[in-house]
Amino acid sequence: MIEWSKDSEALRSAIGDLGELLSDGHADRDREQTFPRAQWRALADSGLFGLPFDTKWNGIGQDLMTTMYVLEELGYSCRDAGLNFSASTQIVSVGVPLQRFGSAALKDRYLPRIADGTAITAHAITEPGGGSDALHMATVARADGDGYLLNGSKAFVTNGPVADLFTVYARTGDAVGVGSVTAFVVERDAPGLALGRKISKMGLRSSPFCELYLEDCRVPAENVIGDPGSGFRILDHVMKWEILCSFIINVGEMRHRLEQVISYALKREQGGRPISDHQAVAHRIVDMKVEVETARLWLYETARKVQSGRNVTVDVAVGKLLASTANVHSALTALQVFGGYGYTTEYGVEQQLRDALPGLIYSGTNDIQKNRIAAMLGL
């Protein structure tokens, strides 16, 4: 059992108090696929984006576990899963690698704007032809005078259409390998950077994404994060944070869904008694409870190991598998319990299912996670 401090509880409670404001109009935003500017500003004003960043950069100075604890409440309180996903991306995409690996000048220049939400951030990793195969990325960066010229394209850039700052990963070495990738901070108005149109998608529709194109995009040498060739190590660090932060939000969403399903099952009657009396329904709800608690415990335990400096390669992969599959199963179960009403838009259950499905793909597909676990088992 984790004992949270009074400060942690206060931070979590403050986000919970914003739930109604953050959720207001979420169904309209989902239908229209619009980014929630007003709600984004409310999250920025709450300090959420600055949770893990040092106070010298407008942050709150919390550790990973406390950051997750507050983000779990965001998932529980806010019905706009797209906003939740964009908020997680805001924290992990540029800010997290900068704080750990960036130069003092880069931190001073960018972290205050990231922490207070005035600069929206994104990371550009995946490529149209490469999927999760980051080592074989085709985007290249060539040293040119006092900077680099980047050429290539990136796909599925979350927050891309509205972002001000990007972490772009590009190959700087000729040989394929962990030492051939470099991470760059690239500003939206950098010469040679162009954004594609916003792409319509199935779920998380208030969180926009697009393709990103680089044609002799000039980036100053001082905008390299860490050292040239250290991009894969940086990406490994970022992906740990991304999985733990985004999927603990899903845990909060699952907790809220569980309460929604229990309430409906107790009220909905068939044959003169509530459907919760039927063992088939009750057992489905029990499965929801077991899955959400298992995912929750695993993610927090993995975060504890991260903070203690332990190897969590398998733990992170297992956590991603547990949480993503539990979220989809939870949403499918809610759809079954609600029956025909779940298939309508009235209760928002169908939207929850659409929002859960991408978790099987982003942050490294579940098949990739199984490959990683298999490799660590010597298979």
Describe the structure.
This protein is an alpha+beta fold and 379 residues long. It folds into three domains: 6-120, Butyryl-Coa Dehydrogenase, subunit A, domain 1 (Orthogonal Bundle), CATH 1.10.540.10; 122-229, Butyryl-CoA Dehydrogenase, subunit A, domain 2 (Beta Barrel), CATH 2.40.110; 232-376, Butyryl-CoA Dehydrogenase, subunit A, domain 3 (Up-down Bundle), CATH 1.20.140.10. The protein has helices at residues 6-17, 19-23, 26-32, 37-46, 64-77, 81-101, 104-115, 231-267, 279-307, 313-338, 340-343, 349-356, 366-376, and strands at 121-124, 140-144, 147-158, 165-171, 181-187, 193-195, 209-220, 224-225, 269-270, 273-274. The strands form three sheets. The chain has a four-stranded mixed β-sheet with strand order 1-4-5-8. Helix 9 runs antiparallel to helix 10 (313-338).
